[in-house]
Structure formats: C-alpha cells, structure tokens
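Could you join me in thinking about how sequence relates to backbone shape in a protein? To get us started, please write out a protein record for me. Would you write everything just below, so we can both look at the same thing?
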Amino acid sequence: MSTPFAKAMALIDAAHAQDPRRIPIPKSQSTNPSEPPTASSAAQPESASSSNDTDTIPYELHYAQKMTHYLTLRCSDPSTPAPSEPLSLAIRAQHLRRWEIPRASYPMTKIGYHSWRSALQRHQAQIAEAMCLEAGYGGPEAARVAALVRKEDLKAGDPETQVLEDVACLVFLDDQLEGFAGEKGAEYGEEKMLGILRKTWAKMSEPGRALALGIEIRDEGVKELVGRAVQG
C-alpha cells in the first residue's frame, strides 16, 4: 500500500514534470554513489518519462532530484539526524511550480526581487501543503512542510530549516553558479558577484560549507571567485 510520503513525493514530482523549461539530461559522470543521480537513473513520474523528448528533462524535476541528492549528503554528517518526512518533502518541493510566477511579473528592482521571492515562497508552500493533505497527511504535518518551504524558522535557528538552506545553497553552487556567472557576470561585475557568493557562504552551516568545498567548479574564473569569497 502506498504511503502518504510516497503519494506526496509523486504529486510533487508530477508537478515538476510540467515545467515547460527543459534541459539536456545530464550525463552520468561515474558510478560513485556520491555523484548526483541523472535523470535516466532516478525514478521519474510517468508524466515525465512518457515524453517523446527522451534527451531532455524538465528543469524543475532535475533541480528537485539534485535537492534530494544533496539532502542525503548533508544528512550523512554525524551531527545531523536522518531527515524527517516533512523535511524530505520540503526539500523536494523547492521551486514547486515556480514558473507560474516569473521574475518579470515584479519590478526589476531590489524591492521587486524580494517581493517576488516572498510571493514564490507563499505560492510554493501553499501548493506543497495542499499536496500533503491530498496524500493523506494530517494538518500539522502538512503545515510543517509548508513552514519549511517558507523557511519560517531559519533566523530562529531551527535545525531542519538550516539543513534546507544548506541544501539550496549547495545546489546553487553545483548546478547554477557557472551558468549564472556566464549570464550575469559581465553585467554585475566582480564585486557584486563576490558579494553574492559571500552571502551564500554566510547562509551555510559548517557541515554545509564542508560539502561546498568539495564541489567541482570547471570554470577557472568562477573557481577563483569562489575561493576569494570563501576566504572573506
């Protein structure tokens, strides 16, 4: 019999599979279990695997798989408990139907950016909570997933919220940083890029930072920037 956890994960992944943005399926680098799962090796919802385009994957499904991968690595630290079901679901639900609120729907200003991020968190948390209830979770468990998605207790020092923050930062560094630097680096300039990296580093716990130092960055210029940001 399917559990509420399995049902909720399937609902979340089915939503991710509707992302109109698709990327090439990442090539498997090795059989090392510490490597992130590729789209071909990770379980996918039927709606994703039935696509005629077998060479690509919806980006948000790829992102969700990366998040789960880094959650496993982050919770392998001896000081960190095994992830709870609400944390695992909140991790998987990051960026849930994110494409429905594009950045361009808010002013291209600092205030507009923060307003957009807040709207995304509320939107994603509301959908995740509804999916958990549909899957059979009770109100308190579903509300906990939503609170984690919103990162409500991050400043209060909630351990699970900090793990989620670590994982999001790790996926940014591993999966998005080089593309972001290529797209925005010239526009932002070196100092702004350094500021973004320093803020990312400051958000992370020591176990998260230890994992970050092991991420392979192929672009030498980006690698040099990361090194400077880490050194302060």
About this structure: The two ends are 52 Å apart (CA to CA). Residues 157-232 form one domain.
